Amino acid sequence: MTVQKASKRTKFIFITGGVLSSLGKGLAAASIGALLESRGLTITFQKLDPYINVDPGTMNPFQHGEVYVTDDGAETDLDLGHYERYTSVATGQRNNYTSGRIYYSVITKERQGEYLGGTVQVIPHITDEIKRAIHQFDGEVDIAIIEIGGTIGDIESLPFLEAIRQFRSDVGRDHSLFIHVTWVPYIKTAGEFKTKPTQHSVKELRAIGIQPDILLCRTERPLARELKEKISLFCNVSTDAVITAQDVHSIYEVPLCFHKEGLDDKLLELLNIWTGTPHLEAWQELVRQIQHPKAKVLIAVIGKYVDLKESYKSLHEALVHGGIGNSATVELRYVSAEDLEAKDAAELLDGCQGILVPGGFGKRGVEGKIKAITFARQRKIPFFGICLGMQLAVIEFARNVVGLSDANSTEFDQATSQPVIYFIKEWYDYRTDKIQIRDENSNMGGTLRLGAYPCVLQPETLAAQAYVGKEIFERHRHRYEFNNAFLHELVAKGLVVSGTSPDKSLVEIVELNDHPWFLGCQFHPEFKSKPMAPHPLFRAFIEAALNYGKS
Ligand code: GLN
C-alpha cells in the first residue's frame, strides 16, 4: 500500500447514489457543504465520475449536460457548479476525476516504467490512484465531500467504490462517513410508499463492502416515523440517520430542509466533530426572497438543446439569481433556434421582455439565433449574448447595420470574405505568460481558450455600470474571437467595445449605443453567479427586462 494515511485533520464524507440517476446527489452534496460552512467548518468537494472520457469537454451536452468551467480552465461535471453556487469553495482540476483520467495516469506511469515490471491491476493500482486523488485534500480542510457519480450497480463505478471502501479502513470511522442517496417512491394507486428499491440498493452497496451511515431518501412527501423505522431495520442504519429529502419548489430550500431533518447534527455526531450552532440566516433570507417575489419577468433563451435543461444548468441558475437580485421571479421560455429559422420571430418571441442567446458550438440553428438578435435589436428588447451569442451579435450587426452581407464566423463558413469572428492562431496567455500557438488541426480541447482571463472595462458603458471595479476576471471556453480587422468599421457604425483584454488585443464585451440594454460577452458569466451574489450582468439584464416597455 503506497497511499499515505490521512492526517488527523481532514474528514471525508462519501456520497453515493442508488436506484436511479437524477435524484439530486450533486445538490445534496452542495447542500451538505453549505450546512457545514454555516458552522464555520472549512470544506472542499470532489466529484468522481465513472465514465472513460478524460474530461467531459468533448461530450455532447445531450448526453452529459453542461460542461462547467473553472477558473483554472478545467472542463468539469456540472455538479461542480452546484458546489460553487452553494458554498465559498473555488473548484478546479483536482475537484473532478473521471475513470478515464485515473486510467490515463496509471497507464502513463506504466509506460514510464514506474511499476517496475509488475502486473498493473485494478486493485491495487487503479484503486490506489483513486485514493491518491482523494487524499490531495488531506490536511487542507476540515471536511472533504466526495461524490461518486453514477448509480450503485453500474459496472464502471466499481473501482471507485472499492477505493472508498478501502479508504474507510485506512483512515478509520471517525474520519470517514458514507451517505447513500436513494429513492422512496410513493405509489398513488396503492396509497403508500415503497421501500423495496432502497432496500435493494443498500443491499447492493453492502455486497461491495460499504455499509451506509446515513440514507438520504428522495421522496414526494414526508416520511413518517414508522417508515423510517422500517428502512432503518432493513438497511441497518439508525432511524435518526434516515433523512427525508422531500421535493422542493426551489433548489435553494434544500440546505434548510436537510437541517430541519437533523442531517448536519447527525453527520457531525458520526464524525465526532463539535461546532457551534449553524448560521443559516442568509439561507433563510434567500428562501424568503424567492418565495415572495415582487415582480415577474419572461425571458426567451434561444438554444440548440432546448429540450434538455441540464445543458444550460448554470445559465438557468444565473437567470434565477438575476431575478433574486431584483426581487423578481424569472420565467424562461426556451425557444429552439431551428424553429426560429422556419417561423416568424414575433410569433415565437411574443411577450418576452428579454432575449438571451447562450453559448454553443456548430452551425445548426445559427441563423435562427441571428434572427432573434435582429428582432431584439430592432424592437429594443433587452438582449444578452453569451460567447456564441456575442459572436452572433457581432455578425448580425456587421450584416444588417454595417452592410457586410457576407459577414460570418469562420466556424460556420471557412471561405467567408468578411470573417468578423475568426480563429486566432497566436495569442498571449497571461497565465503562462507565453504566446500560444494553435491551428485548426491542434488536439481538440487544446485549441480552446479556457478558464479565467482578465478584462478591462470602458467607463460609461453598460458593463461598467453593472460591475464594481474596472478590471474583472471571467471564464472562457471558446475557439473563435472577434476579428480586429473589422473593429473600426463596426465601431464607426455604433458598436461599442466595452471590455477588452488588458493589452486590448481581444474584444471581450460589445454593446450597442442606441439600445436600452444590448450586451454580448465573449466569456461565460453564468459560471460565477451565486444565489446570494447574483452576477452583475445577469442582475443588470433582468433589471432592464423588468423595465422593458415601461417608458
Ligand atoms: N463556438 C464558439 C467558439 O468556439 C463559441 C463557443 C461558446 O459559445 N462556448 O468560439
Structure description:
With 551 residues, this protein is α/β, with parallel strands linked by helices. The protein has 2 domains: 11-286, P-loop containing nucleotide triphosphate hydrolases (Rossmann fold), CATH 3.40.50; 294-547, Rossmann fold, CATH 3.40.50.880. It is 35% helix and 23% strand. It is built from 19 helices and 25 strands. It has a 9-stranded mixed beta sheet with strand order 13-12-14-15-25-24-23-20-21, sandwiched between helices. A 7-stranded parallel beta sheet has the order 5-2-6-1-7-10-11, with helices on both faces. The longest helix has 15 residues, at 388-402. The protein is globular, with a radius of gyration of 25 Å.
For this structure, what is the CATH class of the largest domain?
Alpha Beta
In whole angstroms, how far apart are the ends?
71 Å
Whole-number tally of structural domains: 2
How many β strands by DSSP? 25
Largest sheet: 9 strands, mixed
Strand ordering within the main sheet: 13-12-14-15-25-24-23-20-21
CATH topology of the largest domain: Rossmann fold
What number is the mean pLDDT? 92
Radius of gyration: 25 Å
* CATH H-level superfamily title of the largest domain: P-loop containing nucleotide triphosphate hydrolases
Strand content: 15-25%
The helix-and-strand class reads alpha/beta
In the predicted model, the low-confidence regions spanning at least 5 consecutive residues are 1-7
Broad shape: globular
Helical run tally: 19
Give me the CATH architecture of the largest domain, please.
3-Layer(aba) Sandwich
Brief digest:
The protein is built from 19 helices and 25 strands.
